[in-house]
Specification:
Layout lengths: L34 H7 L3 H8 L8 H5 L4 H18 L3 H15 L1 H10 L5 H9 L1 H12 L15 H25 L24 H9 L27 H4 L6 H16 L3 H10 L7 E2 L4 E2 H8 L3 E4 L5 E6 L4 H10 L14 H8 L2 H10 L14 H8 L14 H11 L14 H8 L2 H22 L4 E2 L2 E5 L4 E5 L11 E2 L16 H7 L4 H9 L3 H4 L10 H6 L6 H10 L14 H7 L4 H10 L19 H8 L6 H9 L3 H8 L12 H4 L2 H10 L1 E2 L3 E4 L5 E3 L4 E10 L4 E13 L2 H7 L1 H5 L10 E6 L14 E7 L3 E2 H9 L2 H5 L1 H28 L1 E2 L8 E4 L2 E4 L6 E2 L18 E11 L2 E8 L7 H17 L16 H8 L3 H13 L4 H10 L11 H5 L3 H19 L5 H4 L2
Antiparallel strand pairs: 1-2, 3-4, 5-8, 6-7, 9-10, 10-12, 11-12, 12-13, 13-15, 14-15, 16-18, 17-20, 18-19, 21-22
Helix pairs in contact: 1-8, 4-7, 6-9, 6-12, 12-13, 12-14, 14-16, 16-17, 16-18, 17-19, 18-19, 18-20, 19-21, 20-21, 20-22, 21-23, 22-23, 23-26, 26-28, 27-28, 28-30, 30-33, 38-39, 38-44, 39-42
Length: 1036
């Protein structure tokens, strides 16, 4: 049951008690009443009414005084004798005294008297005598400075009299209300005492000030608009001097008392401060009366309407002050008239401090807070602290008494000063003050309040150990830490509750499961408020906290209902992880954004923060686990609607990053294949073009063919599409050698860069440096990568030899062998010319073999040019291999290799071989032998590196004439001519000095003329026999 609006604090419900209050409001009824008034309390209500109506006779002096002891009877008798004198006064004197008496007695007493009096006869005199003692006692109360005696005089009357007065006054007001309702068309007022917590939901939070104003407005008073203060049915300007003793005989009816109160309320609502002051001065008892509709005292009304009213433009500037604030003198006078009203509640459980806070009445907040600081810790029926309501008032700044606009943040600072712990108190809907600010405020004012609340929360946690108690604590795991989310606040911890002292206030959820950040998004408070919350302590985690549908901040912001592109960019900047989180429907934020046709800038931002690689990592590729879903969706599932965004992403990536994006997995756990293979057509074309290194090289395969960590080298196979001026339609195959170390690059390409080659005989190369970004100026910035593109042959000599050996016709048909020898002889002669070209410019090849002779279009060239050495320089051991001559091998001293019962020496390549043309003479002879016979001159183990094959190295080291005779036998069996065998064996002599002196000697050998002669004869014979060409031979 709600206590009477006039009751003291100790009778109120627990929800309205201060949370932390050191003050105690003493019940005025607990103090001893004056003795004269105590005498009156012995009368019952029926006795008193009978006395007034003359039903049982007028109380006599003897009957009034016989109830007390002798001392008290004497005092009362004296008072009644004084009243006898008043009976002989004239009518005007009685009227004046009656008015004075009514002012001192109070509104309720005067109303009861007026309702029961008849004509002015002997009963009037009896009534005056009966209450003479009470009037004297009340005069003493008015001169007392004690706070406890300043309580309402109505409260000091006997219970029976109070019930009678209250019943009559209420009946009068209901009748007036009924008439008023008929006039205004049957409007039914809303009872202010009804608790409507749903009105404070985030969607309606900004309307709290207007609602409180509406609930506090005067209802049902038809005469409250009167500008002339009416007393007893006549109008008077009340300009003449009036003797208070004469006014004491005037009694006011309940209707007039109610009218006075309504006139005062209406004057306050209309900011007519002069009329309010006049009414209060003439009727001080108005400060003690309450509005029966709202249960509010005049102090509530003045606190609510005492703030000024200003008109603002769209930019927030003041257009004009429409109503000034209440003067400070009026505020102080009203508080002084009835100090206990500071502690009084209205029907909704609001103290005057609540009303001052919701209206932004800075001056009133200071006065009320100074007199009752604990009022800042009191929650009303909706669980709202003055702090909650002060935050709501920030949306409508109010001017002060002098017309200046008071900063909204000052109101919040004032309330926080009285009760800093309010930062952690929730209302009935579980909203902290920061929830209210997030849903009700916007712009710079809102940002200031948000930062103020966050700073105060941190200060309370750090200095005072403030904790956020949660009925349920949920956690979510991210890639960097575990986020603890508090979902509700309880008064005390329970067994099932958990106290998270590391939680921030902007991580607390209200009863709807919303954090302050989600409240701001749902209320469309703007990107400034959203960014302020997200930038605060715990804001990054708050952006990841889901709502009941598992939608985080980004899911909401990209939806059609709460779409806000500016806020999306703010969240992505602060908490990029939010872009990689799916909701209950398994949808990423970018999927919702694409369905809502969000701007391309938003789509680009979403995909950039959710790439599977770190774009800021320039030294290499840093893969981000758990990211990449947005990239896969955009390239593979958008039907090319956002192909422009895909191209934009590619344009800001380095080539290495583009490769990683193209070959990233397009499905969970790598089940979907590479993105470039699953991409939609337009996106796939864009990715393939992006894979063209420096705009012209498109890699083949997903990994390097060769990797050398010591050199910082990776070798790739690629297609070269040329430049814009020399575009190659289908591309040509190249070998792309990429060096991450400049020193290795310079050493391996020194000869190629120093010497000029005939590219009709030697393979072509394209060397370039690659910067991390295409925007870098290569003339001023050192390249990050160094590359050499080497054209690849369409056919190599080893494939030709391998194909002929597998042909049965080659072994059965002598003519076929002749045609083959004539064809390969042409190729061998071109190789000899290539070697002569190299020797003429002063370099040695050093690795002549079947694999290094290739066909480019219709030309055969010598390949593997990077390992060339100038004549007279030392050969690198890396260049030595199966094509090296015997002089490259040496035996290690005192090192013996044991294989079962057999013991042999250990051989290795020398490290100080000087480049000489004789090295290429050996290589050319070995090449001719293998081309003619299809067999290796020295059989190296293909599973071993040549330097590790000790048996083959020992054979090479011990090369002699016997080995040459074996070669001659093999060539004879294959049908090689005597001249051919002579040329081969001459090149394969063990001693370098005995080999041909130069390539001219080889090119002038009779073998070449003999092969041309045999080729002509074979051609004529084939034409005569009409035998078809053999494809394997014609391919050469």
């Amino acid at each position: 049951m709600r206590s009477s609006p006039g009751d003291s604090m100790d009778q109120d419900s627990p929800s309205r008690m201060p949370l932390k209050s050191s003050q105690h409001v003493e019940d005025p009824q607990s103090r001893a009443r004056p003795k004269a008034l105590s005498q009156l309390e012995h009368y019952t209500e029926s006795e008193f009414k009978a006395a007034l109506s003359n039903e049982t006779g007028t109380p006599t002096r003897d009957s009034m005084t016989n109830r007390g002891d002798d001392g008290e009877n004497a005092q009362v008798r004296h008072q009644l004798e004084e009243e006898d004198k008043a009976l002989h006064m004239n009518s005007s004197q009685k009227g004046t005294l009656a008015m004075s008496a009514a002012i001192r007695i109070g509104s309720k007493v005067g109303g009861m008297f007026s309702s029961m009096l008849g004509s002015r006869n002997e009963a009037e005199a009896a009534e005056m005598k009966a209450f003479a003692s009470f009037r004297k006692t009340q005069d003493e109360r008015r001169t007392s400075n004690d706070d406890a005696t300043s309580a309402s005089s109505y409260r000091l009357l006997p219970e029976g009299i109070r019930r009678a007065v209250k019943s009559f006054s209420t009946r009068e007001l209901v009748e007036e209300q009924h008439v008023h309702d008929k006039v205004i068309g049957g409007l039914t007022p809303v009872r202010a005492g009804t608790s409507r917590s749903e009105n404070l939901s985030p969607e309606h939070g900004k309307l709290i000030h207007q609602r409180v104003m509406q609930d506090s407005q005067l209802i049902g008073d038809m005469e409250a608009d009167a500008t002339i203060i009416d007393t007893d049915g006549t109008t008077s300007d009340a300009t003449y001097e009036m003797d208070p003793n004469m006014a004491a005989t005037l009694f006011l009816s309940p209707a007039i008392l109610t009218k006075r109160l309504h006139q005062a309320i209406r004057a306050i609502e209309r900011h007519n401060w002069e009329q309010v002051s006049y009414l209060l001065n003439a009727n001080p008892w108005l400060a003690e009366m309450t509005d029966v509709n709202t249960g509010q005292f005049l102090l509530h009304k003045l606190a609510l309407y005492g703030a000024g009213v200003a008109l603002f433009d769209d930019a927030g500037g003041v257009v004009r002050v429409e109503a000034p604030a209440a003067p400070e003198e009026l505020t102080l006078n009203l508080i002084q008239m009835f100090p206990s009203s500071v502690h009084k509640f209205d029907h909704d459980g609001n103290l005057p401090l609540h009303m001052a806070a919701v209206s932004g009445n800075q001056e009133m907040c200071n006065h009320l807070g100074d007199r009752f600081p604990s009022g800042a810790s009191v929650r009303n029926e909706e669980g709202l602290l003055p702090l909650h309501m002060a935050i709501q008032s920030c949306s409508s700044p109010a001017p002060s008494a002098d017309g200046t606009i008071i900063s909204p943040s000052e109101i919040v600072k004032t309330i926080l000063r009285f009760f800093p712990g309010g930062i952690a108190v929730t209302d009935n809907d579980g909203n902290l003050p920061i929830h209210c600010a997030a849903s009700a405020l916007h712009g710079e004012v809102g940002v200031d309040i948000i930062y103020m609340l966050l700073d105060e929360a941190d200060r309370q946690v750090e200095n005072n150990g403030l904790l956020f108690r949660c009925a349920d604590v949920k956690t979510m795991q991210t890639d960097d830490d575990t986020i603890t989310i508090v979902t509700d606040i309880t008064g005390t911890p329970t067994e099932s509750s958990t106290v998270d002292d590391s939680a921030y206030c902007n991580l607390v959820r209200n009863n709807a499961g919303h954090t302050a950040l989600i409240e701001a998004i749902r209320a469309r408070s703007g990107w400034e408020i959203i960014e302020a919350i997200a930038c605060g302590p715990g804001g990054k985690k708050a952006a990841l906290v889901p709502d009941a549908n598992n939608d985080n901040a980004l899911h909401l912001l990209v939806s059609g209902e709460f779409a806000d592109p500016a806020a999306i960019l703010s969240i992505l900047k602060i908490a990029p992880h939010a872009a990689a989180v799916q909701n209950n429907d398994g949808m990423l934020p970018i999927e919702i954004a694409c369905r809502q046709m969000m701007p391309e800038e938003v789509i680009l931002a979403l995909v950039l923060v959710d790439l599977p690689i770190d774009l800021d990592e320039k030294a290499g590729i840093k893969v981000r686990e758990g990211f990449g879903g947005s990239w896969c969706f955009l390239t593979c599932e958008c039907d090319d609607h956002y192909a422009d965004v895909v191209e934009e992403v590619i344009s800001i990536c380095s080539y290495q990053q583009v490769r990683e994006l193209c070959f990233a997995s397009s499905g969970p756990n790598g089940s979907g294949g590479a993105v470039v293979t699953r991409a939609t057509p337009v996106c796939r074309l864009a990715l393939r073009r992006a894979l063209r290194f420096v705009g012209r090289f498109e890699f083949l395969g997903s990994s390097a063919l060769e990797t050398d960590v010591t050199l910082g080298l990776k070798v790739f196979e690629a297609l070269d599409f040329g430049t814009e001026d020399d575009y190659i339609e289908d591309g040509r195959r190249v070998l792309l050698r990429c060096y991450s170390r400049e020193k290795s690059y310079l050493e391996e390409t020194s000869i190629v860069r120093e010497y000029s080659f005939d590219h009709n005989l030697i393979e072509e190369m394209f060397m370039f440096g690659v910067h991390e970004s295409a925007d870098d100026d290569m003339s001023g910035v050192s390249p990050k990568q160094f590359c050499v593109a080497i054209e690849l042959p369409s056919l190599t000599l080893d494939r030709v030899v391998e194909g002929m050996l597998k042909s049965d016709e080659f072994h059965r048909n002598p003519g076929m062998r002749i045609r083959y020898f004539s064809k390969v002889s042409v190729v061998l002669r071109l190789v000899a010319k290539s070697l002569r070209h190299l020797h003429e410019i002063g370099v040695v090849h050093g690795d002549i073999c079947l694999e290094n002779c290739g066909k480019f279009d219709d030309k055969w060239k010598l390949t593997s040019s990077l390992g060339l050495q100038p004549i007279g320089k030392r050969f690198e051991t890396s260049r030595m291999g199966a094509s090296s001559p015997p002089e490259f091998v040496e035996l290690l001293r005192n090192v013996v290799e044991t294989r079962g019962q057999e013991m042999s020496s250990r051989a290795t390549f020398k490290g100080d071989i000087v480049a000489r043309p004789a090295i290429d003479m050996w290589g050319f002879g070995k090449l001719m032998f293998e081309v003619f016979t299809g067999e290796s001159l020295i059989k190296f183990d293909p599973d071993k590196e040549p330097r590790q094959d000790n048996r083959a190295l020992l054979t090479l080291k011990s090369w002699n004439e016997e080995d040459l005779r074996d070669c001659i036998d093999v060539m004879n069996d294959c049908g090689v001519s005597t001249l051919g065998i002579d040329l081969v064996t001459h090149c394969l002599l063990p001693e370098a000095s005995e080999r041909p002196a130069d390539m001219d000697e080889i090119l002038n050998h009779k073998f070449w003329k003999d092969m041309r002669r045999k080729t002509v004869i074979a051609s004529r014979s084939r034409q005569q026999q009409n035998s078809p060409n053999i494809s394997d031979v014609s391919e050469i």
